Structures are given as C-alpha cells and as structure tokens.
C-alpha cells in the first residue's frame, strides 16, 4: 500500500486544518479511508449505545495539488487506517504558515502517517518539520463495518439558526436539565425545550428556512406527515454542546432532519 499527497495552497491547508479540528472535537479515534478521488473520516454507528456516528467526505481535488494512492489490491483499491484525530491536529499546528504540506504513509517501527511541513526561512534553504503519527491498518475483512449508514425515513427537515445562537441557549439550558428536546415542523418553526419536575423552559424560533425536497430526500422523507406537525428528538445537552463547540468550518447552513421516533440527523 502506498499513499502520498501534497498541498501548496495555504488556504487549502487552513481549510483542511479546520475540518480536522472540528472532527477532533467530536471524537478521539476515527477511521481514515483513502480512495483515488476522496478522503473520508468515519466514526462507525454508535447510536444504539447512545453515542454519535459521523461520516465526513472530502474530495481530494479540492485540497491537494498532488495525490497518489495504491490500495490493498487492484480489486479493492482503498486504504483504511485507524488514527487519533487529535494527533493530526497537533501536526497541522506547525503548518499554518507553511510553504507546502506533504502527507504520506510510511513504515517506521509501526505504520505511520507522516506529515512533512515545509516552512519559510530567512536563509535560502527552507526548514522542514516532520511528524510521524502511528496508525493501525484495518484489514480488508473489516471494511464492511465502515460503510456509510443508511439514514431512517425522516418526517421534518429544517435549516437551524446560527450555531452561536444555539450554543448560547444550550449553555443556559444545561443548568436546568441533562437532556434537551429539539422539535420542528415543515412550517419553519423550531423549539428547544428542557423539562423537569420543577421547571419547564422553551425557546422558540419562527420563519426558519425549510430546505427544498430533492430527489434523494423523496426516498427518505415521510410523505404523510402534516406540515404543521412537530417532530422531536431528545438529546444529551452535553453532547449537543460538544457538537456546537466543535464547529470550526463556519458552515453557511446546517440542516437538521428529525424522525418522529426521536432520531435526529445534523
């Protein structure tokens, strides 16, 4: 197996760093999947245990000036690596003013993802900083555990308010309860509610954007759900705040899709 990639654009380095920083705020270990045209950061389905699953997909052409990859075999031309996301963040900290960034799969005492950061220098020769990050190669027989999860049919899909606004509200509500109920309908209404034996507090949003239904959504969106009917999901406030605090890619739109049985997709 071989992998080698190079980034020259400082804007691409910064954007890639922001993506990895966001991922590291959500999880400790993740799976890095490498294909010829895409790079994936995956956390397998943990919802059944009350956890979070994640699927992050990056087109390599949007980030890398050079990209070469030879996978496990010609039939299965992919590479799966288990890696600690925070270690990638530490390596990328030294690349914020880099002339270039190289990433390659190497074999030291253990398999490593090596980051070579070329830094500008007053002298004629550039400085080179190298970070070796240990990885575990995932065997082919386990690849099926890292396929993209099929989302359940959802009843409501809505564009959420700004992340900063949600974070400020959730910070206050966490002092009242451990769990938060998020509800929305297709009229653009959304509520955030906590309820205990002693207190009930609700924040309401109106006139939010409702994303248009695409051909893909038509396969997963319930067609019998009344437009003004609310669908709700009950989430752990701490995990919801962890998601909000980790956003460093400044998304212009965050869509939340909810099922009546309490499942939420962000």
UniProtKB/TrEMBL annotation:
GO terms for cellular component: checkpoint clamp complex; nucleolus; site of double-strand break. InterPro entries: DNA_clamp_sf, HUS1, HUS1/Mec3. GO terms for biological process: double-strand break repair via homologous recombination; meiotic DNA integrity checkpoint signaling; mitotic DNA replication checkpoint signaling; mitotic intra-S DNA damage checkpoint signaling; nucleotide-excision repair; telomere maintenance. Keywords: Nucleus. It comes from the Eukaryota. It is found in: Nucleus. Belongs to the HUS1 family. PANTHER family: CHECKPOINT PROTEIN, MITOTIC AND DNA DAMAGE CHECKPOINT PROTEIN HUS1. This is Checkpoint protein. It comes from Phallusia mammillata. The lineage of its organism: Eukaryota, Metazoa, Chordata, Tunicata, Ascidiacea. The gene is Hus1b.
């Amino acid at each position: 197996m071989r992998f080698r990639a190079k980034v020259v654009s400082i804007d691409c380095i910064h954007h890639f760093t922001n993506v990895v920083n966001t991922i590291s705020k959500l999880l400790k270990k993740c799976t890095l999947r490498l294909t010829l045209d895409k790079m994936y950061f995956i956390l397998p389905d943990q919802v059944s245990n009350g956890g979070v699953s994640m699927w992050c997909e990056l087109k390599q052409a949007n980030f890398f000036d050079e990209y070469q990859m030879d996978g496990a075999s010609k039939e299965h031309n992919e590479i799966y690596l288990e890696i600690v996301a925070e270690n990638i963040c530490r390596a990328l900290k030294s690349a914020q003013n880099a002339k270039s960034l190289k990433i390659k799969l190497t074999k030291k005492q253990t398999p490593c993802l090596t980051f070579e950061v070329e830094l500008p220098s007053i002298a004629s020769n550039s400085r080179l900083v190298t970070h070796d990050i240990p990885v575990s190669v995932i065997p082919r027989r386990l690849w099926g555990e890292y396929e993209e999860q099929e989302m359940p049919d959802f009843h409501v899909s809505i564009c959420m308010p700004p992340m900063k606004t949600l974070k400020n509200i959730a910070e206050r509500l966490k002092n009242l309860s451990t769990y938060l109920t998020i509800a929305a309908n297709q009229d653009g209404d959304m509520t955030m509610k906590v309820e205990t034996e002693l207190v009930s507090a609700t924040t309401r949003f109106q006139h939010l954007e409702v994303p248009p239904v695409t051909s893909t959504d038509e396969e997963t969106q319930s067609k019998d759900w009344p437009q003004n009917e609310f669908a709700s999901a009950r989430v752990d406030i701490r995990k919801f705040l962890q998601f909000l605090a980790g956003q460093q890619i400044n998304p212009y739109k965050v869509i939340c899709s909810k099922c009546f049985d309490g499942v939420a997709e962000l």
